[in-house]
Specification:
Length: about 525
Amino acid sequence: MTAKWWESGCIYQIYPRSFQDSDADGIGDIAGIEQRLDHIAGLGVDAVWLSPITPSPMADFGYDLANYCDVDPLFGTLADFDHMLAAVHHRGLRLILDFVPNHSSDQHPWFVESRSSLTSEKRDWYIWRDPGPNGPPNNWISDFGGSAWEYDEASGQYYYHAFLKQQPDLNWRNPDLRRAMIDVMQFWLDRGVDGFRIDVLWHLIKATGLPDNPLNPDYLPSMGEKFSVMQLNSTDQPEVHEIIGEMRALADSYGEGDERVLIGEICLPLDRLMAYYGDAEPGVHLPFNFELIEAPWHARSLASFIDAYEAALPPGGWPNWVLGSHDARRVAGRLGADQARVAAMLLLTLRGTPTLYQGDEIGIGDIVIPPERIRDPRELREPGRGLGRDPARTPMAWDTSSHGGFSSSDPWLPLHADWQDRNVASQSRDPCSMLILYRQLLALRRKHPALAIGSYHAVAAEGDVLAFERRHGDERLLIVLNLGGESGQMPPETGGGRELLSTLEAPSTASEGYMLRPNEGLVLALSA
Ligand code: NOJ
């Protein structure tokens, strides 16, 4: 059986506001993305996922949609989108859009109508409830802090918003809303998009009767207020799988050979995450796996997770790995520059579809955003707890021209401090740069089916060394990663292995008795 494009391929996430500005307003746009497609194709990835480009008041930078079937003027027009999509396909790449079904903007005409009266035709398209004895109908907390309920004076009821009050939750138990949203998916799929990354998919259905969430006994204020309760009744309800089945049926209706992919953003422990692959009926193709972002960076615990994840996959379930995103701290900030190289090798050698976040390929690290330039609503609502997402959303740096070639005017967020050195043009010329390492790793994946689609076999290793084999046909590749800054013990299987790639500059000679250098990652070809 041949692998599907979304199994063997690598996905590259673009945060459109910060990729390339083509009209000098300091904010990236669709024409800008099109200008930079050579970078993406040259990197060697297979698909591009765009964070939302639909019309939005930008309270949550596009994750508050005021129209599901158009393009925000800030980013361009539908015609610009079609043009860019054709250019993506022309390069043999695929395009995945962000679909945000859990909530709309409070400016969406559906919500305006819903809010207009208790008897409005669309009242039930959102989640309205009478006040409880203490005000809000229950104790649910917004992911951005504070009660998840907003009081509406005019009607005397509250509406539910899992995120900002400008992002009212849609009521997926309403059949008309459900049909309207499936139509939205069809609108884009008919235009030729290759699939969706589905925002907060596990949030769509809330428990009947909206009971209180249990309090979290381990809560610390530094975690952010959303963790003060456990979201057991506000998320991950069994009925969500029926909805996913409908979405999947639509995606599958495009037929074999024209595969459209569904990727679910789901933050749940392993056993509950796996349910999103589906059961008797298929679920999403890829429920995102965020472990490389969330787990402590220790070889032994990561090795156990990889084994547990592999073992938990349902029959036919294809794995996937995510290293960075517009919501997470930059990987080079989390792990440091040396380990970010090892992490790149891990991401691109594990079994499963990798998702790579823009800017990680040039190793952008932590960025301090001056207080007057903070834009992230999450940081503004719960300041000073390290929850802010602006540092992951700063513009790409392409070259040494003004504003890193991102824009001819001042960008909406500042660039990383070292952009004069850390940019695509200068790293293209440096054979030891992060960018070249990413290109080499992606080229290796293309060349070796063992990496792209081969089986995974854990290899015993000690201390901070993580080792595993990938096999396909006669091909056997050994990946050995030193997750620490001390020399590490090579597993005995290394004997006779031929080095294909190292994360370190000077070539190693992985001969007998060889110790893995600090922060070294190696891909070795073993004899069959
Ligand atoms: C997850 C998105 O990735 C994040 O950026 C957004 O704020 C929330 N969902 C709400 O849509």
